[in-house]
Queue: 4 jobs
Job 1
Amino acid sequence: MKEKLLKLKEEISNKLLEVKDLAGLKDLEEKYFNRKSEFNIILKGIKDLSDDLKKDIGQLANSIKQELTLSLQEAKNSIEKQRVSKEKFDPSLPAQKQETGHLHPLTQIRNEIEDLFHSMGFAVIDGPELESDYHNFTALNFAPHHPAREMQDTFFVDLKNKDEQYDMIMRTHTSPVQIRAMKKYGAPLRAIVPGRCFRNEATDARHEHTFYQLEGIVIDKGINFSHLKGVLETVGKKLYGPNTKLRMRPKYYPFVEPGSNGEYTCFLCSGKGCRVCKYTGWLEILGCGMIHPDVLKNGGIDPKKYSGFAFGFGFDRLVMLKYNIDDTRLFNSGDLRFLKQF
Ligand code: DAH
C-alpha cells in the first residue's frame, strides 16, 4: 500500500508538470481526486489495516494529500499568471468612451432659481408629498366642501394621519409648506419651496398628474404688495432677460387677500404677440398675493404684528416656456432624445 501511494504520488506530480491549461488541470483533479479515484480508494482502505500500519500509512497518505493539494494550487496559480501575461495590451487603441449624464432641465433651472433666491436671503425648504388634507386645504382657508377645492382635482389616499387623524392626500400644490414653515420657523420668514405636486388630471400636452411648483413666502413687519412686485420683477428678469415686464391682475386664491396672477412679457416676441403667448404678448406663470390673516393665524403668527406675501410658480410651465418645449409629458418621459438636448 505504501508503494502504491508513492507511485501514485509520482504519477500525479509528473502529470501536474505537463498540464498547460485550467481545463487540463480540472481533468486531472477529476481523475485523481474524485470519490472513486484510486487515491481515495486507498484512503478508504486504511481503516481496515492493523493498528501499526494504520498509523504509518495514514500519516503518509495525509502528507501526500497535503503536498498534492498544494502542488495543484501552485499549478493553478502559474497557469493563471501565464494567461494574464499572454493577453495583449495595445496602448495605441482608443480609450473606451465614458458616457456622463447631466442634470434634468427642470433641475438645472431649479438650481438657477434657488441661487437667485439664496442671494436675496431666502431659505430653500422642503415638505412632504403625502400631505394631510388639513395642511393642503383647510389651513389655507379652503373650508371643507368649499367649491374652491374643485380647482384642484385631488388624489385621495386611503390613510389617516397618525397624530392628527386628518385624511391624507397627495399634495396638490406646494402651498401647504407655508403653514408648516410658519409653525416651524415663525416670523420673520423668507423661504422658497421647490417641489413635486400631484393632481388627478387627464393628461395632455399641457397637463400632467405629476408636476412641479415653486412656492415663495415672505413674512415680516410692514411687508406690503410692492415688496411682492419687486421680488417677482427680479425673478422675471433673471429668467427671461432684463427687458422683461411684469403684469399682475386680480385672481382668487383662498389663502391670499388680495390675490393676483403674475404674467411676464413674452420672451419670444417681447410682448408684440406670437404663437407662444397666443398673440397676447404675456405669459401667465404664477399666482400670488398677500397672505390672508386667517392663514397667518393658522400658522401661529399674529396678523396684527406681521404681514406677508406668497407666490407659486408653475415650474414646469416656466421651463417649457424658457426652452420652447411643447409637451409637458416629456419631462417625466425619461426619453433620452428629449433629455440630451439640454
Ligand atoms: N397654490 C396655487 C395653485 O397651485 C398657486 C399659488 C397662488 C400659490 C397664490 C401662492 C399664491 O403662494 O399666493 O394654484
Note: The domain at 105-339 is CATH 3.30.930.10 (BirA Bifunctional Protein; domain 2).
Job 2
Amino acid sequence: MVKINENYQKLQKSYLFSTIAKKVEEYQKKQPEAKIIKMGIGDVTLPIPTVVTEAIKKAAEEMAHKETFRGYGPEQGYDFLREKIMQEDYKKRGIDIQMDEIFVSDGAKCDTANFQELFSEDNIIAITDPVYPVYIDTNVMAGRTGKFLEGKYEKVVYMPLTEKNHFIPQLPKEKVDIIYLCFPNNPTGTVLNKEELKKWVDYAIQNESIILYDAAYEAFIEEENIPHSIYEIEGAKQVAVEFKSFSKTAGFTGIRCAYTVVPKEIKYDLNNMWNRRQSTKFNGTSYIVQRAAEATYSEEGKKQIQKNIAYYKENAKIILNELKKANLQAYGGINSPYIWMKCPNHMKSWDFFDLLLEKANVVGTPGVGFGPSGEGYFRLTAFNTKENTQEAMKRIQEIFK
Ligand code: PLP
C-alpha cells in the first residue's frame, strides 16, 4: 500500500482568491449593472514590448531550420543570457557575480519553492508575516514546520510586518537557520534600506544562517539607498541566495523566465548542490524564452520595459495620493506596485472587503489572507488601467471623505 506525504495534510486550504472570486460573482449576479473594478490583480496587464515579441519570432524561426535548430539546452541557462544578466544586473551595479553563479529558470515561484530542498528537515525557518505563501507552504510540504496551531505553524518563526515596526522585520530572538526575505515586499509594498538589510546579513554571518532573498519586484525601486540586490551588502555572498524574475520586470508572467544567484563562496557548498539539483530535476528554460529575456536588455528593450513600469508606478502614486486625501493610511506603493492600506475604523480585512465591494464596487485583497499580522490591512495593486484606477479612487473618496 502506498503511503502518501502526510505533510500535505498540514497545509491550510487557501481560500483567499477563490473566496474573493465567489463573493464578486455573487455580488455581480445581485447587481448586474455594477461596474466592478478589480484592484486585487497581482499580474501584469500591459502587453509585452515589441522587441521581445520580435526576439521570440526570430528564435522560433531558427527552430525551423536544420542549421539553427536547438534541442535541449544547458540546464543552467544559455551563456548569451547569463552573460547579459551578469553584466547588466550585477557588474553595472559594481557587484562581482560570475556566470556560473547564475541559474536561469522558468520562474521565481518554482525556484523559491524548490530551494528549501537543499536543507535538512530539522532547520528552523523564519518568514515575515504577512508573506508570499509559497515560502511557507513548500516548507510545510517538506515537513519542516510542525503542526498548524492557533493560526501558525508551531516550528516556524514569524516576523510580523506592521505599522508599529514600520514594516521592518525585527531580528529573531531565537536562532534561526533559513530566513526568507522579500523586498520590495509582496504584499506590503514596503522596502528595506541598506542599513536594515545589513543587519540581516550580519545576523546570518554570526548565526551561520542562510538568507533566501526574493527580489522579484526590484525593477520598481526608485528611491536612493534601497538595495537592488542583496549583494550590495558586504558579506552577503557568504550567506545569501537571490531570486529575480522577468515576470514583473518585463511583463513575462505568461512567458516565464527568472533566475537565481547562488554565489560560489556561499556556505555549505550550495552552489554545487543547486547545480546538481537543477541538472537532475530541470531541463532548462526554452531557447525561445531565453532569447526573449535577452531582448529585454537591449537599449530599445530597456526603454519599452521602463515605459510599462512607469505606467504602473503612476497608478500606484494615484492610489497613494487619493487614499491620503480620503484620510486613509496607506503604505508601500513607492518602490512597488502594491499598496498596503490600513482598514479604517479598526475594521477587519474581510469586513472592509465587503464594504468596498458593496459601496464602491471595488475589489482588493484582504490582508489577513497573507498571514495573521495582515489582519486589519488590505492590498491594492497598480496593475489596472489608469482610468480604472482613477475611477476606483474617486469612488473610495466618496465613501470616506
Ligand atoms: N516572488 C514573489 C514575491 C511574487 O509575488 C511572485 C509572483 O507574484 C513570484 C515570486 C513569482 O514569480 P514568477 O512569475 O517568476 O514565478
Note: The radius of gyration is 22 Å.
Job 3
Amino acid sequence: MKNIDFAVIGGSYAGLAAALQLARARRQVLVVDAGQRRNRFVDAAGGTSHGYLSQDGRAPGEIAADAREQLMHYPTVEWLHGSAEDARVASDGRLEFRVGTTAISAKRLIIATGVRDELPPVPGLAERWGRSAFHCPYCHGYEMDAGRIGIIAASPLAQHHALMLPDWGSPTLFLNGAYTPNAEELAAITRRGTQVETVLIARIDGVADVVLQDGRTLTMNGLFTQPRTLMSSPIAEQLGCAREDGPMGLFIKVDEGKATSVANVFACGDAARAAGNVTLAVADGAMAGFGAHRGSMG
Ligand code: FAD
Ligand code: MG
C-alpha cells in the first residue's frame, strides 16, 4: 500500500492547477492521470483552444503539457500514468483506490476527472467532433468566420444555441426530431434570424455539409450540437459524493472551497460544475488545492 498525503485523480487543467498549489505548499502530492482530456479531439484535428488568457490559439495538449512540465519541477510531486479504480473510504477515514496493481491510500483526495461527451447519433458527426463540430460558441464560434453555422439539435438546449449563435454567423437550426420548439420559442428563434430546418439529417459530409433525408445538401462553415455530459469516472460515486443534476448531466456537488459531501474529498473542473471550460477548470483546481491544503491544518 502506497501512503500519500494528497492524491489528485485527473491530471489535466483542473488537476494540474490543484496539484500546483499543493506543490508550492511543499506538500507530497501524487497525480494520477489516464491521459484522456475532454478536448483531445481538437489536438487530433490539429486545432486550437480558445479563450484562456495568454494561451489563446494554442493546441490544448500543449497548454496541458507546459503546465505539467512546470509542475514536475517541484520535488514533492509524483506522477502516475493510469486509471484510478475501486475507490473507497477506509474505516480510518483515509481514501483508498487502486491504479493497476498499485494500491494507494491518501489522507486527502482531489477529484479532477472531467466529463465525456455523448453526441447525438448523427452519422459523420463524431468524426468531426473537435474538428468542425463543437458545443461551445465562446470557444469555437469566432472561427466560423461569421459564415453559415449548422446547429444540430440533440435536446431542447438547442434553443439556446439558436438564440446565441446569430452573434457568430448565420445559423440554421436542424431540429432533426430531437427538439420541437413551441410557438413562442419558434418566434424568438426566428426573430434572431436563425433559419429552422425540419427535414431529418441523413449524414454529415465534407467539412460540415449537412445532407438531409430529402437529398438536399446544406454547406456550413461548422456545426454546433448539445452533447450530454457523462462523468468520466465512477470514483466520486464509489466514495459516496453527493451529485447534482445539471442541464447537460450529473456533476459532483461542491462548496465554495471545492469540498464534496465526503470528508477530505474535493472536486474541481468539468466534473464538478454544470458547464466548464479551461479557464474555469484552472480556477476551480486552484481553489480545490487551497481548500485541501487548508483542511489539512486542523
Ligand atoms: P479534462 O481536461 O477532461 O481532464 C480530465 C482528466 O482526468 C483526463 O486526463 C482523464 O484521462 C483523467 N481521468 C478521468 N478519470 C480518471 C481516472 N479514474 N483515473 C485517472 N485519470 C482519470 N475549453 C476552452 O476553454 N476553450 C476551448 O477552445 C475548448 N474547446 C473544446 C473543444 C471540444 C471539442 C471539447 C469537447 C471541449 C472543449 N473545451 C474548451 C472544454 C475543455 O476541454 C474542458 O472544459 C476542460 O478540458 C476541463 O478540464 P478538466 O481538467 O476538468 O477535465
Ligand atoms: Mg475535472
Note: The radius of gyration is 21 Å.
Job 4
Amino acid sequence: MNQQKESAFQKKVFIETMGCAMNVKDTEHMLAELESKEGYKLTQNAKEADLILINTCSVREKPERKLFSEIGQYDKLKKKGAKIGVCGCTASHLGQEILTKSKAVSFVLGARNVSKITSIIHQEGAVEVDTDYDDSRYVFASNSSHSTLKAMVNISIGCDKQCTYCIVPHTRGEEISIPADIILKEVQKAVDDGAIEVLLLGQNVNNYGRRFSTEHTPMNFTQLLQEISKIDGLKRIRFTSPHPLQMDNAFLEEFANNPKICKSIHIPLQSGSDKILKLMKRGYTQDWYLQRIRKLRELIPSVSIGTDIIVAFPYEEEADFLETMRVLEEVRFDTMYSFIYSPRPHTEASRWGIQVNAEEALNRLIRLQNRHKEILEQNNAQEIGTVCEVLWENIREDGFLEGKSDHAKLVRAPFKNGLIGKVGYAQILDARRAYLIGEAI
Ligand code: SAH
Ligand code: SF4
Ligand code: F3S
C-alpha cells in the first residue's frame, strides 16, 4: 500500500484543549496513546476527524458555559459516524450530566482518567470520572507529533489544598506524587528525543513527595530538582506552579544555585490582603509572601516573577484591593494573570455568593491590569543594554528569530543561521510591553 492510500484510511483525531498546562499535557498523553495503540493521527480539521475530543477546563464559569454550544457546533460539522468525547475538568465534575444534556456526546472522560482513553473510545455512553483513580504510575506512550525542544513532564496529579474558591481538588482529586524513577525516565526519554528544556508540572510542585501511592524513598521537590538536573543533555528546567507556603530556604537556594533551573518563577499571590488570604485559605499572609520574594531577590536580583491574582473575592473591600495593588507595586511582576472571582460549584466560597458587584469587580480588574501594563513597560525598558540567554525556537513570518530568555521574556532578533534549537545569547537593543528586541550574539 502506498503512503497516500495508507493516510486516506488512517483514523483521525481532532482535539480542542482549554485550560492550563496540565490539560495541554493530558492532551499530549491522550494523543500519544491514540496514535500508538489505536493508529490515530492528529488533524487540525474537525470536519475530517473520526474522533473529536474536547479537553475542558472548569476553573471559571465562562468556558464551562460555552461547552454545550461547542458540542452543538462540532455535532453539526463532524463527518457521519464520527464520535465526540468530552474530557478534562468539566468532564470530571459534570460527568453523566453531559450525556444527559447532549445526545451528540459518546463518552465522558474525567481529568484523572486520561490513561483510559484507548478503552473508552470503544464504549458508547461510558462515563469515567473517578477522582480517586490513580494513574500516577501509568507510563504513557511517547508522543511524536509536537516540538521536541521543550517537553512537559508531570510530577504529581491532583491537589491537596482546599483553597475556598477552587474547583481543581474536586476535578483532579487528592494529590499523589509520581515516583521519581518514572519522572527521570520521562525526562531522559524527552532528552533522547531532542528536548533541551523540561517544564515540570503539578498544581503544587513544591509539595512533591508528600504522598506516593506505593512505597518510595523520601524525596522532596528540592531533591527531585537535583536528580533531574543530573541528566546530561538537559539544559533548562522550569516548573509550574510552586505554592508560596512551601517555599522554604532550601528550595529557594536550590532554585538560585542550580545553573540548569531557569531564573523565572510563577508564584501565585491570589490576593495581597491578609483578610482575603485567610478567607481563601491560602495559608500565608502578605508579609510571608513578600518575605519569600525578598529572599529570592537577595539570592537572584534579576529573577523574573509571575503571578495569578483574583479580584472581587467575596468580602473584598477597596482597602483589601489596595493591599493587592501594594504587593504589585513592591514585586513588579513580569507576568500577571488576573481574573474576576467566579463562584464554582463544590467550593466553600460559592456558599458566600457574589459580594462585589460586577461593575466594581471590573473596575478593580482594569485598575490592576492597567497598572501592571505600565510596570511591564518599565521592567522591559530596563532590559535594554543587557545580555540574556535565549533558547531560539522559531522563525517568525517577518523573518525574525524568536525565543524565550531564561527569565521567560519573549525575545526577537534578526535571523542568523544555525541558531534554531540552540541556547545562545542576545544583546537587548529595544523593548516593547510584550517582547524584547535584540541581536543574537
Ligand atoms: N495550583 C495553582 C492554580 C491553579 S488554578 C495555584 O495554587 O496557584 C489557576 C488560577 O485560576 C489560579 O491561580 C487562580 O488565580 C484562578 N482561579 C482559580 N479558581 C478561580 C475562581 N473560582 N475564580 C477566579 N479565578 C480562579
Ligand atoms: Fe486550586 Fe489552591 Fe490547589 Fe491551586 S493550590 S489547584 S488554587 S486548591
Ligand atoms: Fe487546569 Fe482548568 Fe482543570 S486550570 S486543572 S484544566 S479546571
Note: Residues 338 and 369 are 8 Å apart (CA to CA).
